[in-house]
Amino acid sequence: MAAPGWIELFVQRLGAAGFPYMVTGSVASMIYGEPRLTLDVDVVIELDAARAGALLAAFPEAEFYRPPLEVVRVEAAREARGHFNLIHYATGMKADVYVAARDALHRWGLAHRRRIPLGEGELWVAPPEYVIVRKLEFWREGGSEKHLRDVRAMLAAGVALDRAFLEAELRARALEGAWHEVSAPDA
Q1: How many helices (H) and strands (E) in the chain?
Q2: Which runs of E-coded beta strand occur in the chain?
Q3: Among positive and negative, which fits the CA dihedral 97, 26, 30, 168?
Q4: Residue 160 belongs to what H/E stretch?
Q5: How far is residue 144's CA from residue 70's CA, in Å, rounded to a whole number?
Q6: What is the model's pTM?
Q7: Per residue of the chain (187 residues), what is the pLDDT tens digit?
Q8: Are 86 and 97 in contact (CB under 8 A)?
Q9: CB-CB neighbours of 5 under 10 Å
């Protein structure tokens, strides 16, 4: 029997516990583009502070590092950029969990997430427009070329995009230059 992966360890547990989620980051860009090495799974969830205990219950303390209840409550109550990690002790696998809160792009992404059948279950993945915008924001913040490579791979794979929505988001976030860099024919 194969060792459990990110889907079994983190994503299926979130879904089973009733938390709306979407997989994003490098895992989502691989689904839309091409495989590459990644060390974690990024997940955006809907979580209010009152349900923090229910979230932690889905990840037993004997199996997972998880932040204290009060930390999860604080992160869930943030206006934006609420975040915490979950780590599976036996495998070292990690999930970066981002709280949707009042972030308009998170909300849009969750409303437009895509269901991918997976065995007898499903996986909810962020829409490609969301992944592209976030990848370009992370590139601007940290300068890591992996984000640009991920976007180029998605475009090379021919992922269908809502260009009007994407261009409006890029304009609103002053990311047109980064977009031109990755989407130009010679990029």
Answers
A1: 10, 7
A2: 21-24, 40-45, 64-65, 83-88, 94-99, 114-118, 121-125
A3: positive
A4: none
A5: 32
A6: 0.92
A7: 345 588 889 999 999 999 999 999 999 999 999 988 888 999 999 999 999 999 999 999 999 999 999 999 999 999 988 999 999 999 999 999 999 988 999 999 999 999 998 777 789 999 999 999 999 999 999 999 999 999 999 999 999 999 999 999 999 999 999 999 899 877 5
A8: yes
A9: 12
Q: Which amino acid belongs to residue 99?
A: V
- The Cα 50–Cα 19 span in angstroms is 13
Buried b (16+ CB within 10 A) or exposed e, 99-137: bbbebebbebbbeebeeeeeeeeebbbbbbbbbbbbbbb
